[in-house]
Amino acid sequence: MASSSPDSVSAAPPSVAASVAASVAIIGAGLAGLTLATRLTEAGLAVTVFDKGRAPAGRMSTRRGEAGGYDHGAQYFTARDPDFQRQVDAWVARGLAAEWTARFGTLERGVLTPKADNPVRYVGVPGMNALARDLATHLDVRAGVRVERVQREPGAWRLTSERGEDLGRFARVAVAVPAPQALPLLAEAPALAARVAGVGMEPCWAVMARFAEPLPLAVDGAFVHGAPLSWAARDSAKPGRAPGERWVLHATPEFSRAHLEDTPETVAPLLVEAWRQAAGVEVAPVEAVAHRWRYAQAESALSEGALFDAGLGLGVCGDWCAGSRVEGAWRSGLALARAFLASSGVDPK
Length: 349
Ligand SMILES: Cc1cc2nc3c(=O)[nH]c(=O)nc-3n(C[C@H](O)[C@H](O)[C@H](O)COP(=O)(O)OP(=O)(O)OC[C@H]3O[C@@H](n4cnc5c(N)ncnc54)[C@H](O)[C@@H]3O)c2cc1C
Hints:
Elements: H1 6-10, H2 16-21, E1 23-27, H3 31-42, E2 46-51, E3 63-65, E4 68-70, H4 82-93, E5 97-99, E6 104-108, E7 111-114, E8 122-124, H5 130-136, E9 140-143, E10 147-153, E11 156-161, E12 166-170, E13 172-175, H6 179-182, H7 190-197, E14 201-211, E15 221-225, E16 229-234, E17 245-251, H8 253-258, H9 264-279, E18 287-298, E19 307-309, E20 314-316, H10 325-343
Parallel strand pairs: 1-2, 1-13, 2-9, 6-15, 13-20
Antiparallel strand pairs: 3-4, 5-8, 6-7, 10-11, 11-12, 14-17, 14-18, 15-16, 16-17, 19-20
Helix pairs in contact: 3-5, 3-10
The structure holds flavin-adenine dinucleotide.
């Protein structure tokens, strides 16, 4: 039998009450949840992040294909806020992100109009998920866990998974998921739920298509008009990607709504055909796989930054709280971190 060291004998074990008091559960390991988790961890709080996906990143995921990956959600991001620009510069300096300098334009029924007024666009390297993966390495992230219930108990919140598993008691909880998915988790916070209920989100069908040969198109990122598609990108033309010819096609919200419950096998050929007509060239992919994003982007995002009830110790963040998009997700996670820390008496800086 191992004998106790003098340290372990003399140190009082932390009481369960004390460990609950410093604990925070974050539901959602997209950029918002991970940014929040990082700040709270840096401030000394005990943070556990739960995500239903197999890996963190949420809508900034990269799907691995047979011959290279696809950014099937967020395509690129821009930086308008100087603080976010500093964060992006730090990612670029570490090789986790890079500027995407490519040929952008609009495409309508085979007519390509190059875009001249291009903002600086960034992507994760070697895939969009690189940023989330990096953040997650420093955090306690439990993937593959869908949180179903957030229940108030005296002095704490109890979380339960969809499999009925008790996920533990936490002093505070942050819900960092798309608005419609946040609603059922806010059953015990009706005032927050009422704000969240007003935010609708549009679906988006995405197609990942691989070709044997480069498509004869003088564009790498196209805003598509007059078609069931809104965007098409030569994903393999982004920096740091595996060689090959891989495209990501995004359907319009109208098409995506109309085909919401269709199967991926039905949707993929419809969008490949839409791409053929929009591009005005023959397109015959070696593989074409569709993915549905049920909650892709907010119809009209809030501009609060984050929602927080200090009395309950419950907060909500996500891109849809801060103008949508990647930059909004980052800003929202940070806004909720500031609110949590200020309410704990920690200088949020
Ligand atoms: C098709 C598409 C294209 C886009 N294009 C762009 C673009 O070009 N530029 C741009 O800036 N933005 C774009 N966006 C938006 C961008 O992806 C988002 O703004 C950003 O990734 C949102 O981050 P988030 O952390 O707020 O949410 P998410 O990334 O959605 O993270 C939420 C996480 O919560 C998890 N989750 C949900 N419910 C539960 C639960 N009950 N229990 C446990 N986990 C749960 C999910 O699995 C997910 O990982 C696009 C999005 C899509 C879908």
